[in-house]
Amino acid sequence: MTTNEAPRRVGIFDTTLRDGEQAPGNAMSAEHKLELALRIEALNVDVVEAGFPASSPNDFTATRTIAEALSRAQVATLARARRDDVETAVRAAGTRNHVLQILGTGSDIHLEHKLGITRQQAIDDAVDAARFADSLGVETVSVGIEDATRGDPDYLRQLTERAVEAGARYIPVADTSGCATPEEFGELIAKIREWAPAPVRVGVHCHNDFGLATANAVAGVQAGADDVQVTVGGIGERAGNTAMEEVCALLAYKGEGLGLVTEVDLASIYAVYGLLREVIRLEEPRNKAIFGRYAFGTAAGIHQAGMLRNPATYEYVEPARFGRERTLLISRHSGRAVLRHLLTGLGLEVDADKLDEVYRVYIAERVESDCEDLSVLRGRLEADLVPVLNGGPAT
């Protein structure tokens, strides 16, 4: 990117309520979906995928309710390459402001073992569904390519070009089984971008089976894709989808060098994640990027000594930017630096020998659990320390 070139805006397409919700353990009521949809829209995402209306009455109702409630973001639906699915999606979400995603099939393994049809049949079905959706006046007709990363390039080209000819203006490309590397996925997106030139938009939809969903998604955008399909917290089938917070965090810190930018409200994503966890009863992870319980916490003395002087010693991603707080925790691995920090905060000064004694009693010998909050030790020191500093026994 040259100094005169503005960063390219990356669209954020949220599929928490569709791909995320369909995974085991993530079921949501229509009421919960609506509440989350409005909170997700408020993050300034571009598209909120409401559901798969033909799959169940709950999805149909939720989609209709969300489509009526959204005020800025587009609503998206999923439909199989069938006219009745397309019609159901339109009845649920209307045509205005609607991204209707028709599910195209990208790999022979899916054609043979899931659908039992030929490549030509798959192309014909996708084309017919796209033309039908276009004839109904759907604002944005989309043909998504499922399992594209295991597809034959010649077939993928035919499917993409025929879909665009039929009226598709958005082509999401899915690494459905999470099998691609960033290099492989970037090369695929570059080809799709060539076969579906602007103004057709290209999206990336990645799964995290190798832990590469964010890396693959960013590689796809660098190769020419226009938006990233994400879920809050990365929920989704198997190992999950590309996590919204990871992509947005990465672009917040590295976007200038990559020439990419998003406009998502970073500071509010964590609160939405909290609501999502409450709705689907999701346990709090300890070490998940951005959202883990201890993503901004440490109990190691060497780390704490550095962070007390300057948090940047071990903290590249700043917690406050994402609605989080850093936490220094006390454990058997904590050192004297954090103890002196607590004592200074209490207005107490001790010499090296007394510090060693306080350390032995209050940390080395007394911390039985893995770790505890700094405030717990502070309260204990505040209550007990006067007799200790006066030369009495530590209790």
Task: Offer a concise description of the structure.
The chain is 46% helix and 15% strand.
Helix proportion: 40-55%
Uncertain segments are none
Mean pLDDT: 92
CATH architecture of the largest domain: Alpha-Beta Barrel
Largest sheet: 8 strands, parallel, barrel
Strand runs, count: 13
Overall 3D form: elongated
How many helices? The count is 15
Structural class: alpha/beta
CATH superfamily of the largest domain: Aldolase class I
How large a portion of the residues is in β-strands, by DSSP E? 5-15%
**In order across it, which strands form the biggest sheet?**
2-3-4-5-6-7-8-9
Which topology of the largest domain does CATH recognise?
Answer: TIM Barrel
Notes on the structure:
Belongs to the alpha-IPM synthase/homocitrate synthase family. LeuA type 1 subfamily. GO terms for molecular function: 2-isopropylmalate synthase activity. Residues 10-270 form the Pyruvate carboxyltransferase domain. The chain is of the alpha/beta class. The protein folds into two domains: 8-280, Alpha-Beta Barrel (TIM Barrel); 297-389, no CATH class. Helices cover 46% and strands 15% of the residues. It contains 15 helices and 13 strands. α6 (119-135) runs parallel beside α7 (153-165) and α8 (182-195) runs parallel beside α9 (213-222).
Please render the helix and strand layout as text.
Layout: E1 8-9, E2 11-14, H1 16-20, H2 30-41, E3 47-51, H3 57-69, E4 74-80, H4 83-93, E5 98-105, H5 108-115, H6 119-135, E6 140-146, H7 153-165, E7 170-175, H8 182-195, E8 201-206, H9 213-222, E9 227-230, H10 244-258, E10 260-261, H11 266-280, E11 297-298, H12 301-309, E12 327-330, H13 336-345, H14 352-364, E13 372-373, H15 374-389
Parallel strand pairs: 1-10, 2-3, 2-9, 3-4, 4-5, 5-6, 6-7, 7-8, 8-9, 11-12
Antiparallel strand pairs: 12-13
